[in-house]
Amino acid sequence: MHPAELTILYADEAMLVLDKPAGLLSVPGRGEDKQDCLSARAQRLHPDALIVHRLDMATSGVMVLARGAAAQRALNAAFASRTVTKRYIAVVAGHLAPPAESWGVIDLPIIVDWPNRPRRIIDHQLGKPSVTRWRVLSHDTDLDTTRVELEPVTGRSHQLRVHLLAVGHGIAGDALYGSPRVQALADRLLLHACSLELPHPVTAEVMRFASSANF
User: Fold this and answer.
1) Would you say 66 and 40 are in contact if contact means Cβ atoms under 8 Å apart?
2) With a threshold of 0.85, does the pTM exceed it?
3) Can the peptide bond before residue 28 be classed as cis, meaning omega within 30 degrees of 0?
4) How far apart are CA 173 and CA 177, in angstroms?
5) 56 catalytic residue (yes or no)
6) In the chain, count of helices (H) and strands (E)?
7) How many whole angstroms separate alpha carbon 31 and alpha carbon 65?
């Protein structure tokens, strides 16, 4: 991808919806080599573009940016009040049996692993409440993997990666958390933000945006 390239799913005077490629930072990191990022590319086209939420560098998919401070406040409030629904597609290691109901729930508290930052861990005493809904889409018996749809109810850093790891099914290609076998399953993290549903920051109309996973 060219450094200035952006895939725009939607744009109006109040917000931008972009399709972030895997391997691109959401916001600038430390150092000259980490200045190319989704927000910087968006601001070259729309100088008023402001960050509202983030996707991990290794994660691809739908991401919304506000245009201007008023829209940013409205979108931040929507995320804080959980009126935003995010769905992800992932491929995980092993045969993950479907839940008894149509959707299963992983409810495990997460905290930063300070000696091993930026990793996160499950900590039942100090962790912040973290909830993920999940359902099985298909199994690949040859590769011994399971394709799942995920809905983070809370929005902790690395939540989906840590929760799937905690139930014994790390996300394929996860260079930070995966075992050598899990890492060898793919040359990138197989986690894609496939849809985002949220109230428009000006009209409050519920809008839904989608992007297909390329894996």
Assistant:
1) no
2) yes
3) no
4) 9
5) yes
6) 4, 12
7) 23
* Residue recorded with tokens 């929005």: 155
Domains and CATH numbers, the chain: 8-81 (3.30.2350.10), 87-191 (3.30.2350.10)
Element (H, E) at 78: helix 69-80
Among all chains, which residue has been given the structure tokens 């990793």? 119
Report residue 79 as tokens. 């995320």
| 33, 56, 142, 174: the active-site residue | 56
CA–CA gap between residue 116 and residue 126 (Å, rounded): 16
The 10s digit of each residue's pLDDT in 93-151 is: 999 999 999 999 999 999 999 999 999 999 999 999 999 999 999 999 999 999 999 99
Do the Cβ atoms of 87 and 208 come closer than 8 Å? no
3, pLDDT greater than 60 = no
Cα–Cα distance for residue pair 133/194, rounded to 1 Å:
15
